[in-house]
Amino acid sequence: MSVETGEKHKTIFLVEDNKADIRLIQEALKNSSVPYQVVTVRDGIDAMAYLRQEGEYADAPRPDLILLDLNLPKKDGREVLAEIKADPLLKRIPVVVLTTSKNEDDIFHSYDLHVNCYITKSRNLNQLFQIVKSIEDFWLSTVTLPSE
To answer: Class assignment of domain 10-140?
Structure first.
């Protein structure tokens, strides 16, 4: 969690199954100027349970931003994106697909499902940190996000 600045804490919902990528993304966000918390789940089933506040996630905060990997176990990220954007209670939450896939079909399909942006993860550590920092700067500092 970043330093308290008096603002409402933002919730970044990271849906990622790769432990190394989770650690790197959390590390990249560590020096944020925006007060935030990162909540992570590692599969699509848990992602939807969290977003719908079901079971163990009954008291889960509504995320301000979703970082979604496409290649997830149990329920694919493409299915998760389709469910989010079809749900009137969830569809306004910005979703950034952050994935290793450069497949044109994945890119087109994600935008057809109304993803807010599609970013390919870099395997270069410095580039990945720069990508995550630019996501944070834009989505948590620059844009006006909808309230619940």
So the answer is: alpha beta
Q: What is the pTM (predicted TM-score) of this model?
A: 0.88
Task: Please list the residues that pair with 118 across neighbouring strands.
Answer: 97
Beta bridge partners of 29: none
Which residue from 98, 122, 97 is spatially nearest to 111, judged by alpha carbons? 97
CA–CA dist 38, 10 (Å, integer): 9
CA separation for the pair 13, 62 (Å, rounded): 9
In this prediction, residue 148 has a pLDDT band, given cuts at 50, 70 and 90, of low
∠ Cα 10 13 16 (to 5°): 150
State how far the Cα of 48 lies from the Cα of 141, in Å rounded to an integer: 26
Higher-confidence position of 142 and 34: 142
**Residue whose token pair is 């506040």:** 53
